[in-house]
C-alpha cells in the first residue's frame, strides 16, 4: 500500500470508496464541491493496485486569530474490504506531516475521539473554538506552538453548509 496526492483519474474509485464506507455519496460530493470552490488544500489517496482510501483537508478561517493557518480534516474513508489494516492511520499520518511541512498550525476534525485521539487530536483544544459542530466529537490538533493559541469563531469551507 502506498500513499500519494490524489490524481484526477482516482475519482471514479474515490466515489466508490465513499459510497461503500459511508453508504451514501454526500462525503464524495463534499470533496468535489470543495475542489470546485477552490477550498481543498490537500487531497491524498491510498492505493494498492487501485485506490483504497482517501483523505481531504479544506481551509478553515479563524476570525479572532487569523494569523493561524488552520484546516479541517474531512472526509476520510477506507474501502471496507481494506479497513483495520492501518490504511486510515497511514493517510492521517502522511497528510499531517505534509501539512506541518507546508506551515499549517492547526487541524480540526469532527469524529470519533477513540480514533482521532491516537494522532493527538483532543476536544480540549477544540473547546476554545466556536464552530457549527461544537461538542465532544469536535477535536483539534496543534501542528505548531502558534496553533495552541487558536480560539474564537471560525468559518468552514462553503461546501459544508450544503451537507445534509
Ligand atoms: C474510520 C476509517 C477511515 C478507519 O480506517 P482504517 O484503515 O480501518 O483504520 P486503521 O486501520 O488505521 O485503524 C483501525 C482502528 O480504527 C478503529 N475504527 C475504525 N472505524 C472507527 C470508527 N468509526 N469509530 C471509532 N473507531 C474506529 C478500529 O476499531 C481500529 O481500532 P483499534 O486500532 O483500536 O483496533 C474507516 O473505518 C472508514 O472508512 N470508516 C467509515 C467512514 C468513516 O467513519 N470515516 C471517518 C469519518 S470522521
Automatic annotation (TrEMBL):
Q: Name one GO molecular function term.
A: acyltransferase activity, transferring groups other than amino-acyl groups
Identification of the protein by name: N-acetyltransferase
Question: Boundaries of each N-acetyltransferase domain copy?
Answer: 1-144
**SUPFAM superfamilies listed in its UniProt record:** Acyl-CoA N-acyltransferases (Nat)
Q: Which domain of life is it from?
A: Bacteria
Amino acid at each position: 500500500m502506498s500513499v500519494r496526492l490524489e490524481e484526477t483519474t482516482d475519482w471514479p474509485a474515490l466515489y466508490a470508496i465513499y459510497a461503500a464506507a459511508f453508504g451514501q455519496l454526500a462525503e464524495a460530493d463534499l470533496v468535489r464541491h470543495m475542489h470546485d470552490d477552490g477550498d481543498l488544500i490537500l487531497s491524498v489517496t491510498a492505493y494498492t493496485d487501485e485506490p483504497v482510501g482517501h483523505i481531504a483537508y479544506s481551509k478553515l478561517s479563524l476570525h479572532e486569530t487569523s494569523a493561524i493557518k488552520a484546516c479541517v480534516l474531512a472526509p476520510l474513508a477506507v474501502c471496507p474490504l481494506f479497513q483495520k489494516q492501518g490504511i486510515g492511520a497511514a493517510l492521517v499520518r502522511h497528510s499531517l506531516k505534509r501539512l506541518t511541512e507546508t506551515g499549517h498550525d492547526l487541524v480540526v476534525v469532527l469524529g470519533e475521539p477513540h480514533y482521532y485521539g491516537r494522532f493527538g487530536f483532543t476536544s480540549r483544544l477544540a473547546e476554545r473554538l466556536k464552530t457549527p459542530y461544537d461538542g465532544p466529537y469536535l477535536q483539534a490538533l496543534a501542528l505548531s506552538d502558534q496553533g495552541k493559541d487558536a480560539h474564537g469563531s471560525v468559518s468552514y469551507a462553503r461546501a459544508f453548509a450544503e451537507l445534509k
